[in-house]
Amino acid sequence: MTTEPTPDLDEELDRLVAAARDGDREAFDELVRRTHVDTYTLALRLTANEEDASDVVQEAYLRAWKGIRRFRGDARFTTWMYRITANTAYTAVQKRRRRRTEPLDTVDEPIESMIENLPEQAAESAALLEELAAAVAELPPKLRSIVVLKDVYGLSHEAIAEELGISVTAAKVRLHRARKKLRDLLFEEGRSAHAV
Amino acid sequence: MQCEDVARLLPETIDGNDPVDLSVQRHIESCLRCQAELARYRRMLRALQMLRTRYLEPSPTLLAQTLTALEEAGEQQAVRSLLSGRRLAYAGAIAGGAVAAAATTTMVLLARSRRRATALAS
Hints:
Largest interface: A-B, 50 and 33 residues
CATH architecture of the largest domain in chain A: Orthogonal Bundle
Number of helices of chain B: 4
Helix content of chain B: over 70%
Oligomer: heterodimer
Radius of gyration of chain A: 18 Å
Distance between the termini of chain B: 117 Å
CATH class of the largest domain in chain A: Mainly Alpha
Largest sheet of chain A: none
Number of helices of chain A: 8
CATH superfamily of the largest domain in chain A: RNA polymerase sigma factor, region 2, helix turn helix motif
Shape of chain B: elongated
Number of strands of chain B: 0
CATH topology of the largest domain in chain A: Rna Polymerase Sigma Factor, Chain: A
Order of helices and strands of chain A: HHHHHHHH
Structural class of chain A: mainly alpha
Radius of gyration of chain B: 40 Å
Strand content of chain B: under 5%
Order of helices and strands of chain B: HHHH
Structural class of chain B: mainly alpha
Number of domains of chain A: 2
Number of strands of chain A: 0
Helix content of chain A: 55-70%
Strand content of chain A: under 5%
């Protein structure tokens, strides 16, 4: 499991970003090495499909490299990557849906088996997190992307709306629906050991 | 205010960003069922925030594939800019040639007209 970035690591990332903006490919490669697990995690939570997530990661970094000169540095590099990844994943999910002619509310495979077990965490919390990750993966793609970007990654409604090409109001309505559905998936009687 | 009304409002008010109606607050304070529902949503949101640091391991080949894709994209870009540079050079050479040809023609025409003028004068 990867650790949270520390202030020193943030400074190092800033230095690499500055070099990459000046066209230093090696610096950008180093950024990829340091952030790809984080980017992949978001991509997998958004697509709920390992193959799609890997494609999204590659495409997101290609877009990032092409646009790195436009990155002004007023947000963290990771936040900027989240937005690019969200946009790329949204396109990938749309393409997949058209390719497979899936209905809008397709239920994807749960990814609970991918969640790592943390011995240091209380078993109850770990079990809840596993169930939660699986429930998030079960959400319809449009609802899943909103709840992941807002409630897991903390992006603003405005940023989410911009990356997904929807209005702020639509983003809020979808978040409302996503939370309600997630609550039902998690706490409905008979489904979970955590039902209250 | 009914429990169903509160249940409908909870998903959007759980953030605490928007002010909650006083009647909703009063209902929750006096209703164990709605307090339990609020606790479920709070627990769910806390757990969602915890997912942020639960990283999922990609395939071991993903990093190498991504770096290779970037390298290939960089090479394609270099070829494109080289070609566009050559195109500029060709265009420059053609333009230069055209200017030189035009200058030569002008000089020849001027020389001819001068010779004619001299012949007429003599």
